[in-house]
Each structure stands twice: as structure tokens, then as C-alpha cells.
From TrEMBL:
InterPro entries: CblAdoTrfase_CobA, P-loop_NTPase
GO molecular function: ATP binding; corrinoid adenosyltransferase activity
UniProt key word NAD: no
SUPFAM superfamilies: P-loop containing nucleoside triphosphate hydrolases (SSF52540)
Recorded family membership: Belongs to the Cob(I)alamin adenosyltransferase family.
PANTHER family, alphabetized: CORRINOID ADENOSYLTRANSFERASE (PTHR46638:SF1)
Signal peptide region: none
Full protein name: Corrinoid adenosyltransferase
Top-level taxon: Bacteria
Classification via Pfam families: CobA_CobO_BtuR
EC numbers, comma separated: 2.5.1.17
Protein's GO biological process: cobalamin biosynthetic process; porphyrin-containing compound biosynthetic process
Length: 189
């Protein structure tokens, strides 16, 4: 590691533009996409803003650490899926759940009553062809202007990245899983 001088000047001027709702994408192969989205949800909730989290690949009964905590503090989180596809018995059923779930998410976004709507792992139903990309893009474009939408999942479609305001790729440098460490409570779920 190389030591360098700490900055002594401001690095940027205050932006001149207007504040508005953002499309924020957390994608990439490294860990942290969902947890960063949940961090944003916490931050917004801390400011007294209405937040709703939808999870496209989790079952409605999921009880991970985040579900327990969000229940305690009053952030609604809703699983819309039936788990990952290799666990699913019936892919047509998974596709139908994704479409039904999307209708709910779309209504919440368009309703304009939420400051932030999180669409966790929405990239998978898009990649698997369960949800038409065009419908999602249309909703993102047509949404009320102050609504922030956060999308997560690997391989986010380029069309969404282009439309988005802030896109972060979680770059895989290492993952404990590769060294044989299984998922752990409080870290993975
Ligand atoms: P997290 O929920 O921890 O923020 P994530 O949303 O970035 O992770 P997903 O692709 O949703 O990652 O992965 C689901 C689970 O798989 C997570 O619990 C995560 O820790 C784990 N995971 C993430 N990246 C990898 C990886 N490269 N190899 C194996 N498991 C991973
Ligand atoms: Mg995730």
C-alpha cells in the first residue's frame, strides 16, 4: 500500500440541477447488491420516508435477518417468488408469480405514495424471460417524478442501465463461498 497526502481542497462544485427521483441499479457478480439496497431503504426510512421492498426471487414466508428487522422497524418487505429456479418445481408457475408480482410493484411505483421502491433480484425474471423488459422500462420512464426505484441482481439488462441514473457494479474480487465457506446466518441470510 502506498501512503498519499490527504486532500485539502473540495473535490467538486455543488451540482446545479434539480432533485428528483432516481433509478438506482446494483448489479455485478460480487456480494452486496441486496444489502446495499436494504441500506438505502434504512436510510430513507430514517428520514421518515415511505419505502416498500419487493423481492422477486424470495418466497413470501422468508424470514432472513432483514425480514425480521424490517418487521420490527416497520419497513414492508414482500417476497413475490417461489425461490431460485433450480428449487422451483414448475417454471411456468414461477413466471406467473413474477408477472403477478410485477403488477403489484408497478402499481406501487405508479401510485406515487412511496418515496422509494426496491425491486430486489428483478434482473432474474427479466433474464429468464418471465417478465417483458419493455413493460419494466415503460414503468420506470412513466413513473411519478419523485419516486426512487432501486433494482438489484446480476447481469442487469443494458437497456435498464442506460435509463438508470446511478449504476453500481459489485465487482467480484473474492467470495468466501469459493473457499468452501457455506452461507452463514447474519451474513448471507
Ligand atoms: P447480499 O444479499 O449479501 O447483498 P447480493 O445481493 O449481492 O448479496 P445475490 O446474487 O443476491 O448477491 O446472492 C445471493 C446470495 O449469494 C447472497 O447471500 C450472497 O452472499 C451470496 N453470493 C453473492 N455473491 C456470491 C458469489 N460470488 N459466490 C457465491 N455466493 C455469492
Ligand atoms: Mg441479492
Amino acid at each position: 500500500m502506498q501512503i498519499e497526502a490527504a486532500p485539502t481542497e473540495k473535490r467538486y462544485e455543488k451540482p446545479e440541477g434539480e432533485r428528483r427521483g432516481l433509478i438506482i441499479v446494483n448489479t455485478g457478480d460480487g456480494k452486496g447488491k441486496s444489502t446495499a439496497a436494504f441500506g438505502l431503504a434504512l436510510r430513507a426510512h430514517g428520514r421518515g420516508k415511505a419505502v416498500k421492498i419487493y423481492q422477486f426471487m424470495k418466497v413470501p414466508t422468508a424470514r432472513f435477518g432483514e425480514h425480521r428487522m424490517f418487521e420490527q422497524i416497520g419497513i414492508p418487505i414482500e417476497g413475490l417468488g417461489d425461490g431460485f429456479s433450480w428449487k422451483s418445481q414448475d417454471l411456468e408457475h414461477s413466471a406467473q408469480l413474477a408477472r403477478d408480482g410485477w403488477e403489484k410493484a408497478r402499481a406501487t411505483i405508479m401510485g406515487g405514495e412511496h418515496f422509494m421502491v426496491v425491486l430486489d433480484e428483478i434482473t432474474y425474471p427479466l433474464i429468464y424471460g418471465w417478465l417483458p423488459l419493455e413493460g419494466v422500462l415503460q414503468t420506470l420512464r412513466d413513473r411519478p417524478k419523485d419516486v426512487h426505484v432501486v433494482l438489484t441482481g446480476r447481469r442487469c439488462p443494458e437497456e435498464i442501465n442506460e435509463l438508470a441514473d446511478t449504476v453500481t457494479e459489485m465487482k467480484l474480487i473474492k467470495h468466501a463461498f469459493k473457499a468452501g465457506v457455506p452461507a452463514q446466518r447474519g451474513i448471507e441470510d
